[in-house]
């Protein structure tokens, strides 16, 4: 009798231990506050980068890189997983189209990460001041992004960081226009 109780107890501990290793189970509603916070963090990071482009004398490579890293960490796979189910969910502005157009949404999320990574790379290359290489030139053609096709690291490394930044903002705009409910 005592031995069977010990086995039961050990079995119970194993089940509890293994279940704590499993992925947490969320519903879309559980993720809404996290998604909203991620969007606020992305917005604040983009604003910080924008401010530095507007006034290059405020450029701080570490702050620029940290802002790019924030956007990178909250985009790509992270944002895709956060919108994997129960869209729309209570308290969310996300449309059900995200699930119906999964590939399009995933491409935009991955593009957002690629632009943020390009901005982070620019900060590492330009640790002193914001150089003219980081800035767009008057009359420079715009290409790539949500209306183009090539957002590879090689391509993004060959264009000014400011161009990558504008393409990143276009990606946000396209995603929100397509996958976010409009409120009157």
From TrEMBL:
GO MF, any single term: electron transfer activity
Source domain of life: Bacteria
Organism name: Rhizobium gallicum bv. gallicum R602sp
Protein name: Cytochrome-c-like protein
Matching InterPro entries: Cyt_c/b562 (IPR010980), Cyt_c_II (IPR002321)
Gene Ontology biological process: electron transport chain
